[in-house]
Amino acid sequence: MRRAALRLCALSKGLLIPGRGLTQGSQDPGKHGIFHIHEVRDKLREIVGASTNWRDHVRAMEERKLLHSFLAKSQEELPPRRMKDSYIEVLLPLGSEPELREKYLTVQNTVRFGRILEDLDSLGVLVCYMHTKNDSSKMSPLSIVTALVDKIDMCKKSLSPEQDIKFSGHVSWVGKSSMEVKMQMFQLHGDEFWPVLDATFVMVARDSENKGPAFVNPLIPESMEEEELFKQGELNKGRRIAFSSTSLLKMAPSAEERTTIHEMFLSTLDPKTISFQSRVLPPNAVWMENTKLKSLEICHPQERNIFNRIFGGFLMRKAYELAWATACSFGGSRPFVVAVDDIMFQKPVDVGSLLFLSSQVCFTQNNYIQVRVHSEVASLQKKEHMTTNVFHFTFMSEKEVPLVYPKTYGESMLYLDGQRHFSSMSVPVSLRKDYRVEP
């Protein structure tokens, strides 16, 4: 029964499941072809010719300009690839190499989810370089970056810092310059790896100077299962376009949503006065404006990616940790991450920037907490701020949490947006004692 439930967890997210297709969840971790987690970033640096020395980054970027002539003029010039061409596995040996543990360890002896986000981001980029690999050139002329974290769903399994973890991933859909990457994470239990996380990222290929789009190899499905994965990628693209077109920044709320907001407003009016200005909180409720937390990060060279911008995984980790602290402070107990979705990387973050993060609870239901994190940067030379990311995290508390109430129209739109993201969650997760992922 336990095995069937976990296999269903993988299948329900549209991934190739253990024992079928590409993903081999119970393979021997010592098998040839599995990368060590430390090898991933080294491999990426090798592929793009990046230096580990910050002083050499200008020279390395100048050398990449010479690769521009290797870019394809059209997608038809590029040989098609299969899903198994990009399939890779990465081992995070927390159990067999205890010296790795401290980086991933929480004080509660669980695994830091923020570190997992960093590893997923690096894995997604490497998967795409495997798909676009050109044997005639040692260095890739492509600059592949994360465009969107479409969805990350947690399964009902504990993440122990004393058991090995394995990641797997492959390209599941391709456009002209974009690629959808499906990834899974497994943890060793006994002598077998069990699925604990499913993720879908969208990556984009840009030219060697990271200034414009570049073509990527087409993808050819080879089986019915791969056809379904590719079809799901098309559906995901359509869903994202539809979701964007109905954004509350573009369109008014639906009639049902307007009714929801009006009823919430009426429930906060003081019955002792006949005034729209006199507001009181209903029992077991909190004003949304009182749920905020903020942080500031100085973007040092240590956190740069292979293209000498700030690593997207670092941005996700910092946003997640602030969101977790917000949910913890709001709910009064340690929260558990359930889902991450719709993280759009709108602008790159330069080394030396000041990164401002603002986190806020925007929707609650029973013991669920929906947290939104807004990220913006300010350069040291300019005083203007620019939005780089908006992050959406769904947490579950051990106990029922207060309702959150908006005061202003802007907060009402945040509430509805949070409700939409919460409603898009695949399947509500049931809290189990062995299910705990912390920052």
Automatic annotation (TrEMBL):
Under the heading PROSITE patterns, the entry gives: HOTDOG_ACOT
**Compartments, as annotated in UniProt:** Mitochondrion
* Assigned keywords, A-Z: Hydrolase, Mitochondrion, Repeat, Serine esterase, Transit peptide
The protein's GO terms of the molecular function aspect are:
carboxylic ester hydrolase activity; fatty acyl-CoA hydrolase activity
GO terms, biological process:
acyl-CoA metabolic process
Can you tell which superkingdom this protein's organism belongs to? Eukaryota
Alphabetized SUPFAM superfamilies for the sequence: Thioesterase/thiol ester dehydrase-isomerase
Record flagged with keyword Repeat: yes
Residue ranges occupied by any HotDog ACOT-type domain in the UniProt entry: 84-209, 289-401
Major site of localization recorded for this protein: mitochondrion
CDD domains under this entry?
Answer: BFIT_BACH
A GO cellular-component term linked to this record: mitochondrion
**InterPro entries xref list:** HOTDOG_ACOT (IPR033120), HotDog_dom_sf (IPR029069)
Keyword Mitochondrion set for record: yes
**Per the similarity annotation, which family is this?**
Belongs to the acyl coenzyme A hydrolase family.
Name the chain's protein: Acyl-CoA thioesterase 9
Q: Which organism is it from?
A: Sciurus vulgaris (Eurasian red squirrel)
Q: Taxonomic lineage per UniProt?
A: Eukaryota, Metazoa, Chordata, Craniata, Vertebrata
Source gene?
ACOT9
